[in-house]
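This week, work through this protein record:
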Amino acid sequence: MIVEVILTALLLGWVLKGRLTRLADAPIRYAWMIFVPLGLAIASRALNCSHAVSFSSPIYGAVNVLGLATWCVFVVANRRIPGAKLILAGLLVNLLALAANGGTMPVSYDSVIITYGKEGARHWMAVFPFVKDMLIGPSTRLSFLCDVVPIPRPFSLGCVYSVGDVITSIGGFIAIVALMRAPSRSERKQAQGAA
């Protein structure tokens, strides 16, 4: 999800008299599943950074697809949470683009230029050289679903997102605000005891 959207949701939830502690008490099922895609993402980056596996390797792609598929299963298990359907829709859009491109999410060079400027893009690609292997090109499939949405500074930290990221972030925004405003289990028990 887009970091700025999460921070805005937390701020709006607080302004609407929601509580951050209610997020920790949210009725989330199979919370342990959150660590599976995170672990797979770390593993795929480590494999690539150590040059053990290249971006074009089927192993790298399979690890990424499996990680995103795990997120989808987790969201399906928690589909009753407000915004979960939008989160799932965004994840499925990303999964489609990822699977179509061998487990990588190609990025638009033009969007990188819009986000960072020409000099910033050169610097960004020098710091993260693997991005050159992920640029949208003639062989890219479903390029309109890939990382093509630039959000430059000062509107964000500066990043290029996919349509799926935007949809997922809207769902996450709804979920965070709703969960912050919903009474927690302990608050419901107190209210029932007082009645």
